[in-house]
Amino acid sequence: MARSSKSAARTLEDLTLDSGYGGAADSFRSSSASLCCSEAHGGNYWHLTDSMHSRHNSLDTVNTVLVEDAEILECSGQCAKLPELEDVPWSLGEVASALSKDEEMSLPTPPQDVLLRLSVLVSRVLVRVAKEAQRLSLRYAKCTKYEVQSAVKIILSWSVSMSCIGAAVSALSVYNMSTDEDKFSRGKSARCGLIFNVGKFFKWMVDSRVAVRIHEHAAIYLAACMESLFREVYARVLRNALLERDNGIPKFTVEILEQAINGDAEVWGSVQPWQHLICGKSAS
């Protein structure tokens, strides 16, 4: 029997979200916000569709759709890919500032193409953490720091996750110690001691439908974890990379970045585009 060229979609989870008045975990309804797969450009990739009628509905549902086309998988040997984010809650300038924030970094800020490639790689980790936090937020339809912390532990390797969670705990502690006067004189990022904008992460979590109710501490945790992850990955690259020198100055390129990440088993899996990988170099 001839099959349609359109990939068949199989829904594994219907994550029901509510506005905070309970009853979300007992009912499942359809929604137009989902992760879908497209066959454009000759391959499978995921994209976010955000055509939900209203963010403030009493009951909203996020359908997490996994696309599995047996013929495509058998013929091409490829697996489903993660969605490539068009908008990330950070800028390249913030990434450069976050990398230079670490006093142990003796090398200058990498060039723009390296920063851009590093941003793409870390954005895949952001998608994995957000999807896992979305799943963990199902029971109470609320995303707090505990869901983000658990998602980071699940997605990242033990050493990397502990580094990120330590940075998140430190940022939240600094935020809680700020005075009431700081609320009017400084933003949340400054009160947390972070370079990344906490407000952008909060907005990104809301627009991505991680949960209908998102606590501010969840956004602080996610921003701190991603900022720490940039420094962790960059530090590992500097330790593992064989940098060429141009007139005595270390030359840092995208190829060197890729080679260093390919040689690091704790980072390699989580920054790959294949959605079935988490941490560890566990696939050929």
UniProtKB/TrEMBL annotation:
<dbReference type="Pfam" id="PF26281">
    <property type="entry name" value="Histone_ABTB"/>
</dbReference>
<dbReference type="InterPro" id="IPR009072">
    <property type="entry name" value="Histone-fold"/>
</dbReference>
<feature type="domain" description="ABTB2/3 histone-like">
    <location>
        <begin position="89"/>
        <end position="224"/>
    </location>
</feature>
<dbReference type="InterPro" id="IPR052089">
    <property type="entry name" value="Ankyrin-BTB/POZ_domain"/>
</dbReference>
<keyword id="KW-0677">Repeat</keyword>
<keyword id="KW-0040">ANK repeat</keyword>
<dbReference type="InterPro" id="IPR059008">
    <property type="entry name" value="ABTB2/3_histone"/>
</dbReference>
<protein>
    <submittedName>
        <fullName>Ankyrin repeat and BTB/POZ domain-containing protein BTBD11-A</fullName>
    </submittedName>
</protein>
